[in-house]
Amino acid sequence: MPFTHHSHSGQFCPGHAKDSMDEVIQTAISKKMEVFCLTEHMPRHKEDFYPEEVIPSPYINHQKTNLKKVQIEAGQTEEWHSSNEESYWLEANRLRNKYATQIQIIIGFESDWIRPASRTLIEASLSRFPFEFFVGSVHHTLTIPIDYDRAMYEQARDAAGGTDELLFEVYFDEQLDMLRQLRPLVVGHFDLIRLKSDDPERSFKSWPGVWSRVLRNLDFVAEYGGLLEINGAALRKGMSEPYPKAEICQEFIARGGRFCLSDDSHGVDQVSLNFHRVLEFLGRAGISTVHYLQLAEEELASAPDSRFPRTQIAAVSVEEVKKMEFWKVASN
């Protein structure tokens, strides 16, 4: 697809992704993508660092930072996270100017909702830099990562009561808390919780308590006008459908909900990966229109989110998307 609203680079997401942001954008340009949203992760508290975040990255020394070399060699710190965000903002703007005639770049971040205190960190990011949107995501349940590896998933499941069903209920309850607190313009990988579960293909409808929570959360997103991303990362991770599953998409359509498209790429080899399969999925799910973000030259009184006064939401039919040049040159 010629749009993605969710991406990462090894330059600013070391250990978790690869390749420089410049290389990632060059790849998107070569594939004739039209809108590429940058969404590196926001800073987190030290207790929420992932294992690889204590390992130095080859990109760290390329960033403008006041941290001492000994701190860099020892791995990441909260201070490094803050400095990394500043470096990301500066580099993203440099690259937007560099490639302004070839692709529209929108600068945002991916939020991590871990506990109520996460809101303070998110608001700090929004106050430090004039980001143009953010992806609202949940990667933790009961403060434990649920998509990192199976061992951590099982730890979270035990904490929730010992079954996938109970863990899913807690996940969607915490997701609702995130939605209410943040009202993100883009909701990230809505049903990420299924990734490490015993049966990722299982219908959510088979668990009434889980399904009622799914519908409740969809009601809320539709009510405030958020975009649900169709995230192709689930396909490269072995699942048969993107995030979210077709049964969820169909309920969101019934509520008048809007969708955007994301590759959730973590390096050049994942830019637009599996988008042919995503296009097929849109047809099966009954999605006939997709939305994408644009930037206005000036601030708009009618912006869909007052926090982002230049950010607009545009719509295009899936039939029109099929005619775009992307499909002629992209290799998926």
UniProtKB/TrEMBL annotation:
* Known pathway: Amino-acid biosynthesis; L-histidine biosynthesis; L-histidine from 5-phospho-alpha-D-ribose 1-diphosphate: step 8/9
Q: Which UniProt keywords apply?
A: Amino-acid biosynthesis, Histidine biosynthesis, Hydrolase
The record ties this protein, via InterPro entries, to:
Histidinol_P_phosphatase_HisJ (IPR010140), PHP_dom (IPR004013), Pol/histidinol_Pase-like (IPR016195)
- Any one of the GO BP annotations: L-histidine biosynthetic process
Sorted alphabetically, the Gene Ontology cellular component annotations on this record are: cytoplasm
Q: What region holds the PHP domain?
A: 5-231
Q: List the Gene3D superfamilies.
A: Metal-dependent hydrolases
PANTHER family linked to this entry: HISTIDINOL PHOSPHATASE-RELATED (PTHR21039), HISTIDINOL-PHOSPHATASE (PTHR21039:SF0)
Q: Which family does it belong to?
A: Belongs to the PHP hydrolase family. HisK subfamily.
Q: Per its record, how is this protein called by name?
A: Histidinol-phosphatase
